[in-house]
Amino acid sequence: MQYRNLARTGISVSQFALGGGVFGALAGQEEGSRIIDEALDAGINMIDTSNRYGDGESERIIGEAIKGRREKVILATKFGAEPDDERNQSGVSRRWVRQAVEQSLLRLQTDYIDLYQLHRPFGDVAFEEILGVLSDLVQEGKVHYIGTSNHQAWQLSESQAESERRRLQRFVSEQSPYSILNRSIEMDIVEVARRHDFALLTYSPLAGGLLTGKYASGSVAESGSRAALLKGAAGRMLDPELPENAQKFAIIEKLKHVADQAGMPLAHMAVAFARTHPAVTSIIVGPRTSEQLRQYINGADLTLSPDLLDAIDEIVPPGSRMDGQNPAWTPEWLDTSRRRP
């Protein structure tokens, strides 16, 4: 397992981080603990989750699984994407963030969170307000560092400027999707990260399952696959039977041919591609089973030659996006009232 610096924090994190998105939803305590045990044994030292995953159950499963070895784990969680069923019980107000962090600490059975991340942007709340309460939490020792997730490049630059202007804690990381089929961060976020010196934690290296190599256009998804489990609206972009996905699966077939020529599974090539970018600090993987975790780890040492990377570029140009996935959030400026007079 290779390790990289989390920006200039002095923290060293593994090239893979274990994502907790399936815990509490597709994996319970027993399977979750087994996956976490194997991940730690393999050298993975960072676990990432959110208070939203499994309605908090993911945090609880992780907290239970790492009891007695908390100091060995770089623990990251997120806030700000909670359902807004009750007024002021979600979002990024100072009032709610203080409640959210206490609830996360309780579920995780810890006194501190290594990296506390804003799950999505909030255009209607000033960065001054968000950074103010997060800075207080750092001063109190409840949080060591702060980060963002699913932000755009201009928002990241704005937050860095606000931190400097107000002398507040700065975000040290951004969590964004990155795969062969979604290379959009190459257009601007990668350069912003370089200029402001923050870490990039990327997720979905298999593009939600598209790059597993399991699916072929026009065929029926095999039983137990993610496409079969999410059949319908939630899994529309994975469905190989839909004519609307034909072009996307044609691209995947070309990538599979490249991987076959290189003598490696498509999934291994996809993960190695995400890991190869020098700006990527750690790749968040979310295996549903121990077997899937081992598949990630088995491809950890693969390197892609310049010729192989060139072949990928020919199929999916740098900076482009072809995965068809819905964005993690919808910007408020895309609302009808902001687009029409």
UniProtKB/TrEMBL annotation:
InterPro entries: AKR, AKR_Detox_Biosynth, NAD(P)_OxRdtase_dom_sf, NADP_OxRdtase_dom. Residues 317-341 are annotated as: Disordered. Keywords: Oxidoreductase. Residues 30-316 form the NADP-dependent oxidoreductase domain. It holds the Pfam family Aldo_ket_red. SUPFAM superfamilies: NAD(P)-linked oxidoreductase. It comes from the Bacteria. The keyword Protease does not apply. The keyword GTP-binding does not apply. This is Aldo/keto reductase. It comes from Brevibacillus choshinensis. The lineage of its organism: Bacteria, Bacillati, Bacillota, Bacilli, Bacillales.
